[in-house]
Amino acid sequence: MKIRHNKFIIIIAIIIVLLFAFDIVFKGKVYQISCYVINELKFKVEEKFVSDSLVEAKPVEELTIQDLILLGAREEAENKTLYDASYAAMAYPEGDVSSDIGACTDVVIRALRNAEIDLQQLIHEDMKENFELYPQRWGLSEPDPNIDHRRVHNQIVFLERHGESLSTEVRGNLEEWKWGDIVYWSFPDGSLHTGIVSDRATREGIPLVIHNTSVTKEENCLFRWQIIGHYRFP
Question: Higher-confidence residue: 123 or 19?
């Protein structure tokens, strides 16, 4: 009887471990890939109504900083970078996490770096001199170049201080929304998100955005969440 009882406990333990493992996988790669497939199918339907890229038709020697920022972001979408906001030690300056993963903020960081703008170094240097002006949300007593530039709140403070702040209204202000601009949203749960404005637009003239919530993609999502910030840098 005791042997049967022990076997039963072992079986239950194995089932729990398998369920736990499945839960981890489901919330990780499987979930991300599922979201990617759904969004890809949706975008394929919408794509025929989207304009071609003006920037990609330009000669290389005519590309501006904003063009290069856009192309850096588009490369992230083409690479289908998976979402992963985990803390990681990295080089400084010009440090980065593994190229196949990244958070929404890494889309912005890599986009600007394509235009030879190192947001990691810029934010770190600004925080060293003005630490008290940045959000005190993470229990730090000094700047951390591994993560500070990857936090949405810190990017917003930096751009408020050093970038050009633009209208958060879209309709009636489309002329203010240029490719290479950086947009910030607030999700319904209060968490923040960011992306790079594209040069491709819907037939109504609404620009697509390149961003990463599961897999980096370029899509019609500007109105999907509440816009709380719109910046141009430099």
Answer: 123
Quick one: tokens of 78? 């083409």
Rounded to whole angstroms, how far apart are CA atoms 230 and 114?
20
Per the structure, the count of domains in the chain is: 2
- pTM for the model stands at 0.81
Mean of per-residue pLDDT scores for the chain:
89
Residues 58, 55: Cα–Cα separation, whole Å: 5
pLDDT at 202: 96
Q: Helix 152-162 vs helix 119-129: angle between axes, to the nearest 10 degrees?
A: 80
Asked if 154 and 203 sit in the same domain, the reply is: yes
pLDDT band (50, 70, 90) for residue 174: very high
Q: Are residues 136 and 205 in the same domain?
A: yes
The enclosing domain of 86 has a CATH number of 3.90.1720.10
Are 131 and 123 in contact, with CB atoms under 8 Å apart?
no
Q: In this predicted structure, what is the pLDDT of residue 54? A: 95
Domain that holds residue 25: 1-48
Residues 152/195, Cβ–Cβ less than 8 Å: no
Report d(CA 65, CA 234) in Å as an integer.
Answer: 8
Average pLDDT over residues 80-87: 98
Type of residue numbered 157? V
Q: Which helix (H) or strand (E) holds 53?
A: none
Task: Count CA atoms within 13 Å of residue 72 on its CB side.
Answer: 26
**In angstroms, how far is CA 2 from the centroid of its own chain?**
55
For residue 157, give both structure tokens.
Answer: 């403070």
